Amino acid sequence: MNQIMKNLSVLFFASILSVACQEQATQKTTEKKAEAAKPAAAKPALVGVDMATKTVNIGALNDESGPAAVLGKPFALGKRILAKQINAGSSGILPEGWKINLVERDHGYNPGKSEAAYKEIKDKVLFFGTTFGTPNTLPLRPFLKQDNIVAFPASLSSEMANFEFTPPVGASYVSEAHRALDWALEKAGGADKLKVAIVYDQTDYGKDGHKGLMEAAKFHKVNVVAEQTIAPGQKDFTAVIAALKKAQATHILLTVLPSSTGPILGTAAKMKYMPTWMGNTPSWVDPFFAHPQLPAAVFTNYYWVNSMPFWGEKLPGMDKFLDAFGKYGKEMGRPDFYILVSYLHGLSSMQVLSKAIAANDLSRAGFLKALKSLKGWDADGMIKPQDFTKMPYETTSMTRILKPDFTKKSWTVIADYAEPKAWAKPAADDKAEKPTTH
Description:
There is one protein chain. By secondary structure, the protein is an alpha/beta fold. The protein is built from 12 helices and 14 strands. It has 2 domains: about 50-170 and about 310-395, Rossmann fold, CATH 3.40.50; about 175-305, 3-Layer(aba) Sandwich (Rossmann fold), CATH 3.40.50.2300. It is about 40% helix and about 15% strand. It has a 7-stranded mixed β-sheet, sandwiched between helices. Strands 1, 2, 3, 4 and 5 form a 5-stranded mixed β-sheet that branches. Strand 11 (about 375) and strand 12 form a beta hairpin. The protein is globular, with a radius of gyration of 29 Å.
């Protein structure tokens, strides 16, 4: 009897186990069918990309008619030369078969027009290869974030590196201002022999240079004897020079556009005032080398502070650029520093685009991801290595001092690349970090 009960018990539990297994198998089958019935996860929509023709639309917001057009026109040419070179094929800049199409607008250095132009073409492009000018780029930041669009700024404002959608190429105006004062102290032989001043635009560009100089002056315990603001396009600088002369300023930082640099130096020469002038990158333009109304003597005491190569400089990648200019650019414009800078600026964005193509993700999110993987790229030795893998973006804080050579229409290196002394790591603390303002 006990054996019969045991056998029944075994059969009972076996039956229950069989039913449970059948139910579990049925559930798994149902789940698989439900999973199979689900639509495949949609890939992000591509904007500004034609996969059939392998063509990528790239936005460009230029200044070809405003107060910075003397810079903006050659800067626009740099991108056009790059586009022609790529589209001719076999450049090695993008994977073979890929082409780019520039969708360009002229904002005339007007922030309102820049915003309007952005909104007009944003749905036609994958990213912006150029947004020209600090005051015309900073107001776009909320829209760039909202639309998930990367915009490579034609600006060295320290604010650009702090925002993931505006990767800069080169040292900031803050870095340049620091380097200028470091060098001025060395040149003068001490703070007691130095009277520092600044002339700066009433724009975000000007404010960035002013910020850098004031930081450096505080670090070096140097008094700034005069701070003169001007407006882009201003014509008369008599009062500005009179104020600088009255303050007996010996070394003056120019955070201005070239349209102001020439008249400022010319006015100072007429008033027999010849201090040392130190210019941020946008204060110079190569046509000064042959300006009919500005004799070379006006630039006797002018020095240029920047982090970029000059035209024809003996660098590993220069021959490639000059070859591209010879083939695709000679008919568009004469040699100009800003053509070169724009071309290098464009190569940076093409490096990111190549990464996105290789990853088979040409969505805007994919482009941003590719940007954030770029580290150590230096344009064949033309610029200091870039690092976009961390925030703030680390381009470089190394700048140098150049002096124009009007005979050769080129430059003499007065002081080689160096970091601002205020940002140098203390010898006893290898973990010290520089400020994120640059």
